[in-house]
Every structure is written in structure tokens, then in C-alpha cells.
Design brief:
Largest interface: A-B, 40 and 25 residues
Shape of chain A: globular
Structural class of chain B: mainly alpha
Order of helices and strands of chain A: EEEEHEHEEH
Number of strands of chain A: 7
Oligomer: heterodimer
Number of helices of chain A: 3
Radius of gyration of chain A: 16 Å
Distance between the termini of chain A: 41 Å
Strand order of the largest sheet of chain A: 1-2-3-4-5-7-6
Strand content of chain B: under 5%
Strand content of chain A: 25-35%
Helix content of chain B: 55-70%
Structural class of chain A: alpha+beta
Chain lengths: 154, 75
């Protein structure tokens, strides 16, 4: 799958993955360590570096993000937790976008488990992506369930 | 000589102690739930603050110290 992608050239700077698009947008992606929740657990985020730059449908942005994530999963027996940002009330849109990316990107043995709960002002979508044969898979799912079920009584 | 006078021993009400245990257990559960909610809320807040900081040119090291997060480059 990764070989069929056409990513932009990205580089690492100050612990962030950075790439530019021909339209002038600069994207920043980064992983945060969540080992205080569970070993080998990370969260991933990306956004445009400059707010308000014009959005252009650009499949190579998708290819670049998928390349970073694909290499991450290729090289690590790890899990990734994704929390959809609620900024602008667009958390459901972000979740749908990520779902569509994941269905195009993911090999069959990579599993995405989705949960959601209501926070004070918005609905929070949380997903965890884990290899099927990850020995800690059940533990990761249990943690996710525990966290999200605690939100449902808001 | 000291002796034990049963009449002067505090009366232990089994129902009362059971209620106390339940209350402690409830408090523990509520604390756990509160911590979990706080952690998820913090993660959401971190995302907002971090992208604002990145857009303002704040160094990663400073963000780490201010938000108590750790950037990693696993790829």
C-alpha cells in the first residue's frame, strides 16, 4: 500500500514532521508519548502550520500523512490513539475523514477500534489502532473502553 | 487489674461499617472516573493549545514543559 502513495517530501524538525504543498500550505504532524497510560502507546496529530490558509483538496496530503503513519506501524509493535479535535464543532467530519483514510490505508491485520462519549460541550471520538497480533491488544481496548465509558455520564 | 467490660465496648454496627466501605468504594470509583475524564479533557485541550503554540512559533521543548507532554519521533 505504501509504495502506491505519492507523498510530499517531509522532514523532522524540533520533534515534528513537516511538509510543504505546492499551494504554499505547510503541514505539521507530531506524535505524543502516552506511555503513562500504557507502554508503546502514542497519539498522533496533524494540522496546517498557518491558520486560515486556503484549503485545497490535495490527495498528496493524504499520501504524506498515510506514509508517516504507515512507516510508524511498520516499524513499531505499538498502538496509536486518535482523539478527534472538536475545534469548530467539526469532530464528526474529522472522524469520517479519518475513517475513510484508514479504510484506504490499513492492512487487514491492523485493527481500529472506535469509541465515543459526550464531553461537556461536544462529542468526543476516540479511536485506537493496534496490530491484531499485538500482545497488549486486549489491554489497550480495555483501557479505551474504560476511558470512554467514564465519559458517558456527562 | 484491668478487665474488659463488655458493656463499655463501642457498639459496632455491621450495617454502618458496610455503608462506610461502600462509601469509600464509591469515592474511589468516582475519583478514578474523574481522573479518566480529566485525562481525556486534557488530551483534547493539549491538541488545541499545541497547534496554537506551533502556529505562534513556540519551541517544542517549551510546549513540553508547559503542557506536561512528550513529543516523540518514532518513524
Amino acid at each position: 500500500m505504501l509504495s502506491s502513495l505519492h507523498p510530499y517530501k517531509y522532514w523532522i524538525e524540533d520533534w515534528k514532521y513537516i511538509f510543504d504543498t505546492p499551494s504554499g500550505a505547510r503541514y505539521v504532524a507530531y506524535f505524543l508519548d502516552l506511555s503513562f497510560i500504557s507502554d508503546n502507546l502514542f497519539t498522533f496529530n496533524f494540522d496546517r502550520e498557518v491558520e486560515g490558509t486556503r484549503k485545497i483538496i490535495d490527495s498528496q496530503v493524504f499520501d504524506t500523512i498515510c506514509t508517516i503513519l504507515g512507516r510508524f506501524f511498520q516499524s513499531h509493535v505499538v498502538s496509536m490513539q486518535l482523539v478527534c479535535d472538536s475545534q469548530g464543532g467539526r469532530e464528526e467530519t474529522r472522524k469520517r475523514l479519518f475513517d475513510s483514510w484508514f479504510s484506504r490505508l490499513a492492512p487487514k491485520n491492523l485493527k481500529k477500534i472506535d469509541r465515543s462519549g459526550y464531553a461537556e460541550e461536544y462529542r468526543l471520538f476516540v479511536s485506537i489502532i493496534v496490530w491484531q497480533d499485538n500482545p497488549n491488544k486486549d489491554k489497550m481496548i480495555a483501557i479505551l473502553d474504560e476511558y470512554c465509558s467514564s465519559m458517558l455520564d456527562y | 487489674m484491668l478487665g474488659i467490660n463488655d458493656d463499655k465496648l463501642p457498639i459496632v454496627d455491621d450495617n454502618f461499617t458496610q455503608e462506610m466501605r461502600e462509601a469509600v468504594r464509591r469515592d474511589d470509583n468516582q475519583s478514578t472516573v474523574k481522573r479518566q475524564k480529566n485525562l481525556l479533557a486534557k488530551m483534547v485541550e493539549d491538541k488545541k493549545v499545541i497547534i496554537k503554540s506551533i502556529r505562534s512559533g513556540v519551541a517544542t521543548k517549551t510546549i513540553e514543559e508547559e503542557r506536561d507532554v512528550k513529543f516523540v519521533t518514532p518513524v
